[in-house]
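Chapter review: from sequence to fold.
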Amino acid sequence: MSDILAEHEVEQQVVDESDPAPSGPSLSPSRAADFMACPLLYRFRVVDRLPEPPSPAATRGTLVHAVLERLFDEPAAARTPAAARTLLAPQWDRLVAEAPELADMFDDEAQRLAWIDEAALMLDRYFTLEDPTRIEPSYREMSVTALLDSGLTLRGYIDRLDVARTGELRIVDYKTGAAPREEYEARALFQMKFYALVLWRTRGTIPRVLQLIYLGNGEIMRYAPDEADLLATERKINALWQAIDRARTSGDWRPRQSRLCEWCAFQALCPVYGGTPPPLPDPELADQPLPDLPAGDLALPSAGPDPRVPPPDVPRE
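The token string follows.
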């Protein structure tokens, strides 16, 4: 598919961060993906809020996202591969300052430097896919929320939103994994349709392009949604929340075995592997809406043994 929004037609806008926090039940793409992958995983993360060790692969994704976000703080002409590499060290230092446990992911300094080099190669690959000197993003790491008629609030963080002078929208998401095989494309696009639905419900405009930039193997996936797509996505999300609510009420958070199990931090507690989940929280809380977790998945890696199988590439919110 050709690039529908020309890079030079994008104008810069100011982010409006005045939206109030949702007071009722809410769902993000990451938590939706958790439940679809495994209801027990959703329970461990959202209900039990169990801690997870940081993953080098997912943390590298967080680092690359941070660099690409801040790259656009530079004047257009200064957005070069060298400038991106220069941002790696300070952004890594910032992440470690915020979460000191990240420094313990590596056995030695050589392993850490090799990990940084992999992030640098992903950044170099980005410049083969887009020319950031010709792009002025309207929003970066944009917090979005929308209240559906069902009472469910959708929320998340969009990596980049480009708005053309004509008002057309392009949602851009960076992935540090590889582009999925054709049979997994619908799963990869669910997150983007989720965001498109939020923007449609809040702005009244259906985004013209959904663009996934895969830095793992240097591919771009583009999709043009329509109203039928987004209505179907809304029905799917509402049905998903109903299933989550039934599990909350019944306490039945059964595991679903898949390739994702290879990277799950909770195997010791999972019945599939002979474990026993902890007791559910106080039953008196069962009637309270389940909160969603904040953005920032650092648990599952962005690529497994087969780099073209997408499940471990967890959506960022």
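Two observations follow directly from the output. The first helix runs from residue 29 to 37. The two ends are 26 Å apart (CA to CA).
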